[in-house]
Amino acid sequence: MSNKPTFYITTPIYYVNDVPHLGHAFEVIGIDVQARFRRLTGHEVRFLTGTDEHGQKIADTAARNGVHPREWCDRLAGEFRRVWDLLKVSYDDFIRTTEPRHHESVSKLWQKVEANGDIYLGRYEGWYDVKEESFITETEMKEKGLEPGNDRIKRMSEEAYFFRLGKYREAILRHIEENPDFIQPEIRRNEVVKSFLRPDMPDLSISRTSIDWGIPVPGAKGHVIYVWFDALTNYISAAGYGRDEELYGKWWPADVHVIGKDILKFHCVYWPAMLLAAGVELPRQVFGHGFITVLRPGAEGEEKMSKSAGNTVDPMGYVDRIGVEPLRYLLMRELNYGGDGIFNEHSMIQRYNAELPNGLGNTLSRTASLIERNLPDGIVQPIPMEEMTEIEREFVAFWEGTVAEYERGMPRFEFQAVLGRIWGFIDLMNRRMNEVEPWKLAKDPAQADRVRVFLGSVAEGLRGVGLLLHPFMPDASARIHETLGLSLEDIRWKDARNWGAHGEMRVRKGPPLFQKLET
Ligand code: MSP
Q: 92: number of CA atoms within 13 Å, CB side?
């Protein structure tokens, strides 16, 4: 048994009504960065993702395409996996809501909530929003600018089971108050408290009789479980709820559910209420990130990138053009993960050239050439503090500040700020290199020590950069280490983050890290 601390992180499960777009890629890459950061810093990680396959929307999509929903789901779930693999999403488990393991856990959860007296039979008379798979009041329809007659709105009148949602309002409010980290970032917590936990919160309809593409309600013929009750349960069914005590004991509660801000109500109201009703511990955190938005000529303001707005971008186009790792880097660097950000191709490409082939790539290749040319066998030794000038001491101080910012910002998904700081460090080394001009000093044998101290320190700085970049660009990080004659394997974060921790490094210049792009 490993004695590492565990970390269980989840993505939402994706509707299989369409293939993944850049908005989904942005979300899942941020989650992957967090998972890799936790592995790097010594956690045993379980990273869960998957697909949401039941419900009206998927049944309708399959029908429109003339295939059975199961066949449709198989196809699209395969597509999500394929794209995730190409984006280097390091998930440990991929759950599909059509799997028997999930079916079993959902039935168990239903029975538990029912045994607690929180489910009753009634009748749902009202509106249903097919796009969001959500029962919607007239007030909410107005707030969303929707009207009867809109394609996504259906009038419903059917027998349904209800969940006593309102009963849990106060307990959820108390939990949010006592656990300030439960909903993050803070603006999301405020939204949940103000907009969703209203005193007049109605009970929630949790079964449907007018569709059959879903998990049957235990012991109630003709009813299938409401798709959100089904979908939310994925987080515990993948952890063995009601089936595998050992797995469940190890992984639940999850450390963080990462979701987009459009599905806060489901994760911060419905889900906690369901868990409380079943006597299950709540997840430690729900992190609601923002959207990739698009500025469309002629449109008013920015719009969320989405299939229905018809403004989606295929992430694979960028993978072909700039490569997977630069795409991962740019999405995390250009946009603020916790808030919204405009997707702008021109600015992405400019940043690509400035920061990857030029900033990072050049610094590495320049340093490696200088070391190979000027230090015996291309070997650098750790530089003791007393040999350093002010310049190298400034590197050490900046490095320590960068590590502190990394350890503070990474757990909070502040990737943009963290990367900004790392690039600040690369810039600093580059600037000092231009000032010191080690290529000139190297011509004077009396300066050999100065050259050794300076280049050894830059090499050490680059080792650090390679280490911190691992969650964002795992392959580039490995190649930086390779250039320095090191392997990322078996590193221990606690040591590796310290300046001078490397011992001897044998530097060998490799092929360029990134290719420059024509703009
Ligand atoms: N199936 C539900 C989630 C169930 S979780 C128990 C769902 N699926 S979805 O496919 O519509 O959306 C999945 C995620 O993608 C959501 O978190 C959503 O916010 C995110 N994104 C969709 N478009 C996005 C952007 N343009 N930008 C960032 N994230 C976006 O909702």
A: 15
Ligand 1 atom with the smallest distance to the CA of 262 is 19
Which residue's alpha carbon is at the smallest distance from atom 12 of ligand 1? 14
Span from the CA of 313 to the centroid of ligand 1 (angstroms): 15
Residue 503's pLDDT band, with cuts at 50, 70 and 90, is confident
The rounded distance, in Å, linking the Cα atoms of 16 and 404 is 40
Task: Round to whole Å and give the CA distance between 332 and 310.
Answer: 24
- Residue 297: strand, helix, or coil: coil
Which among 419, 458, 468, 415 is positioned nearest to 437, based on CA atoms? 458
Between the CA of 431 and the centroid of ligand 1 the distance, in Å, is 42
Pick the CATH number of 344-506 from 1.10.260.40, 2.130.10.10, 1.10.730.10, 3.40.30.10: 1.10.730.10
Q: Cα Rg for the chain, rounded, in angstroms?
A: 26
Pocket residues for ligand 1 (CB within 6 Å)?
A: 12-15, 23-24, 26-27, 52, 231-232, 234, 259-260, 262-263, 291-292, 304-306
Question: Closest ligand 1 atom, CA of 235?
Answer: 6
Tokens of 138: 């007239």
pLDDT digits (tens, 9 = 90+) for 467-488: 999 999 999 999 999 999 998 7
